Amino acid sequence: MTETRYHELLGQLLDGSLSEADAEELRWELERDPDRLRDVRGHLMFSDLLAQEHTPGRSAEAFWQGIQSRLSVETGVTAEVDTPPLPPPLAFEPPARRKYRGLAAVIAAVILLSTALVSQWPSSRRDEARPLLPTLSVLRSGTAGATQISLRGVVVCVHCTLHETEKCQPAVRIREEGREETLFLDDNAVRRDFNRTQGCGRTPLPVLAQGTVHTENGRPLLAATRLEVQR
Prior knowledge:
single chain; about 230 residues; alpha+beta; 2 domains; 7 helices; 5 strands; about 20% strand; transmembrane helix; transmembrane; membrane; Zinc-finger domain-containing protein
C-alpha cells in the first residue's frame, strides 16, 4: 500500500466515512505493517482527546475509564473490570461522530488482534540478540567447519577503515567478551546488494548478520544470507 493510499484510508477512518471494503483493506495493511499499526493507534488515542475536549457533556471519569480500558487490553490484561457502563452519546452529537466511534471500536479490536499476531510472528523476534556461533575462540582456532551463525556486528570497510586491502570491501566487525574479530564477507549476491545500497562500510553500520562461516587462508569468511541494518 502506498503512503498516499494509507493516509487516505486513515483520514476516512478518523472522519467516520470508511466503507466496509476500505476497512478490510486497512485491516490487512495493519496486520502486515507494525509501524502503521502503531501510527493508527496513536491517531485513535489523539482523536479520543479531541473528542473529550469538544464534548463537554462527557465526564472526565467516563473519558478516563475509556483510556484505562484501552490500555488494559493492549497490555494483555484479561480480567474483567467491574465498572459501570458509559453513558450513551448526547442527543446533539453529530451522526458522523457516532459512526466514527463504531468504526473506531472495530478497528481498535483489529489493531489489538493484529498486535497479538505480530508478536507471534518469527519476524517480530528476528532482531533478538542471539549467541555468537561459533565463538571467537573457535573461529580463531581454524578448526570450525562451515557453521550457521546469526549475530550482531558492525559493517566496516576493510580498505577505508581497517586499511588491510587495496580495494573497498565490506566486512563484519564483531565483539565478544572484550575481544574483536573481523568476518570478511564472501563475494555473493547478498554482499553485492548491500554494497550497492549501503556503501562499502566507510561509515560503520550496525547490522544483524546471518549466514555460513568457515575458515579460509587462516581467517574466518562469512557467506552471508542476510545483512540487515539495525537503526
